[in-house]
Structures are given as C-alpha cells and as structure tokens.
Design brief:
With 296 residues, this protein is an alpha/beta fold. Helices cover 42% and strands 13% of the residues. The chain has a 6-stranded mixed sheet with strand order 2-3-1-4-5-6, with helices on both faces. The structure holds guanosine-5'-triphosphate. GO terms for molecular function: GTP binding.
C-alpha cells in the first residue's frame, strides 16, 4: 500500500477545527461542487469501520443505529468526496493532457475522503487529534478550519474563542511534528497542512495575512510558556532533548514561525482564506479545492 492511501486506496483528509468554524458546512459545499451522486455519498456515510463503531459506542453508550443526528455530530464521520471536475491534481503535473487519469479527473473529479470531526474541546483528543497518529487510514492532509471573525484576542469574551483556536492548532501541529517518531515509517512531508481562514465574507473577519501573524504570535507565546515549564521541571541535561520532542518548533531560542516548522520538522503549513457561504449563498472555496487537488 502506498503511503497517503487508506485501506481501500482512497486518499484521506482530516478536517479539524473548533466548534462553529464551518467544518460540516464545508463538507456539504465541496460535495455539491464535486457532484457526488447522492447514492455514493450515502454509501460512504454508512461505511463505518469497526473501530469507528466501537468509539461511537464508547462515547454514547449506544450502538450507532440508536443515535440521533445530533449525537452523530459528537463523533468523527468519514465521507467519500469528489473534487470539482477539472481541478488540477498534484500527480498530474508531469502527465500528458491525454493521459487517461487526467481526462478522468476532468470529467468526474478525483475521489478522496474527508474525516469530519467534532469541534468541542472535550471530544478533541479522542475524536479528532487521535486520527493524526492512527495508521491504516492513509492520511494525506490535515485541514484545520478556523472562524476568521473569532480571532480577536481582545474580544468581548476576553478572546476565549481566539485562544481556544490557537491552543487547538498548537496541539495539532505538535502532534504532526512528533508523528514521524510515533508512527512507523511516517515522514513529516507525507501529511500536509492547510489552515483554512473561513468566513472571510464577514466584515468583522480578520484578513488572512493578519490571521497568520496573529497565529504565529500566539503560538510563540504558547511555545515560550511550555518551554519555561519544561526547564523548570527537568534537570538541564534532559531539558534540551525533551524540548525538541514536546515544544512546538523545537527547543531553540528563535521565535516560532510556520516556516520554522517546515525547515526544522518538514511540516508544511499553508494558510488560505475564503468562505463557505455568505448571505447570498455564494462561496469562495476554490483555492481550498486546489490545495486538496495538489495533494492528490
Ligand atoms: P461543530 O460540528 O460544532 O464542530 O461545528 P462546525 O465546524 O461543523 O460548524 P458548522 O458547519 O456547523 O457551521 C457553523 C455555523 O457557521 C453555521 O451556522 C454555518 O452556516 C456558519 N458558516 C459556515 N461557514 C460560513 C461562512 O463562510 N460564512 C458565514 N457567514 N457563516 C458560515
């Protein structure tokens, strides 16, 4: 089996992000644009592997048939998708225009899967982040979705939403940084990261470049406090080694940047803005589709 492909050979993307950022809305829009036949999508909805079934029971104390739709949003669910036909694929870059697969992706749109996860804080480690280190699901990419209108750290809620988003992203990136150590044969480059700055239609939203610098600033803060915690606890000799393992971007003195994560650990992060739906039901998701296509 090639890496980045699941047991059935279909490349899989993990969709993460806090509650209300728009994850489920994104899956719906991408499905519509990809013209996923109703029967095909339904089939995938019902395609629950044993492990998922077990965790459903563990979370809810019920078998899946007994669950109401609201309860279903408390657990991760896998959906089969198709890309908007004609979206360029990474693997097509070196193929000729007449190649069968190129023509097929133009007509039908490449098949992939999305694991949509619950955003609630209490469910994250079990139902979302844990998928990063699971083997056999063929992870190609992680899409971290945030609400760009909730990134104000001095907002009325004391910036709680923004802080929650940053700490979630921190945990996701740290898990990706450690992945090659935890997962046999995994290389950091195998899994790419897209940070989706959603809700750019709202005038209260922070522009994407501002979201990026805010994230870097806040992630640096988290990194610094984590580092202080570790050196306080560990004897100095152990601290350095430990920091590379447990501090985002490693234990160096440099300020955290996304570039550093790429340079030092091979974790490539792209940050792209757009919106799933505005008041008139328009969307701006094309660049996210192109990123997915680039991974396929
Ligand atoms: P959880 O399932 O709780 O993790 O949330 P979620 O991330 O799946 O969010 P969901 O898709 O349910 O969207 C939350 C709300 O945001 C819904 O009311 C959406 O209609 C709205 N929404 C999603 N995307 C956009 C967007 O781009 N712009 C605007 N204005 N609203 C959006």
């Amino acid at each position: 089996r090639k890496d980045g492909q699941s047991g059935d050979g279909i490349p899989t993307f993990l969709l993460l992000g806090p509650s209300g950022s728009g994850k489920t809305a994104l899956v719906t829009v991408l499905q519509t644009r990809g013209n996923v036949a109703k029967s095909e999508a339904k089939e995938a909805d019902e395609e629950v592997d044993e492990e998922e079934e077990r965790s459903r029971s563990a979370v809810n104390g019920h078998s899946r048939d007994a669950l109401s739709p609201t309860r279903l949003s408390q657990i991760a669910s896998t959906t089969r998708m198709r890309l908007l036909p004609g979206t360029p694929l990474g693997s097509n870059r070196y193929r000729s225009e007449n190649d069968y697969e190129v023509t097929a992706s133009k007509k039908e749109g490449a098949v992939y899967k999305i694991i949509d996860t619950p955003g609630h804080g209490k469910l994250r480690s079990e139902q979302a982040i844990s998928y990063i280190n699971k083997t056999g699901i063929g992870l190609k990419g992680v899409i971290f979705m945030l609400d760009s209108s909730a990134m104000d750290t001095s907002a009325a809620d004391d910036g709680e939403m923004a802080k929650d988003t940053v700490s979630y992203l921190h945990d996701v990136l740290l898990n990706l940084q450690r992945r090659p150590k935890l997962v046999k044969k995994a290389k950091a480059e195998d899994v790419r990261v897209l940070v989706v700055c959603n809700k750019q239609d709202l005038f209260t939203s922070l522009p994407t470049t501002a979201v990026k610098s805010r994230l870097e600033m806040e992630l640096e803060r988290l990194k610094a406090s984590k580092k202080r915690g570790i050196s306080a606890v560990d004897a100095k000799e152990d601290a350095d080694e430990n920091e590379d393992e447990t501090v985002l971007g490693g234990g160096g003195e440099q300020k955290f940047t996304f570039k550093m994560l790429d340079d030092e650990f091979g974790v490539t992060v792209e940050i792209v803005g757009g919106f799933v739906k505005d008041e008139e039901e328009n969307n701006d998701v094309k660049r996210w589709e192109e990123w997915i296509g680039g991974c396929l």
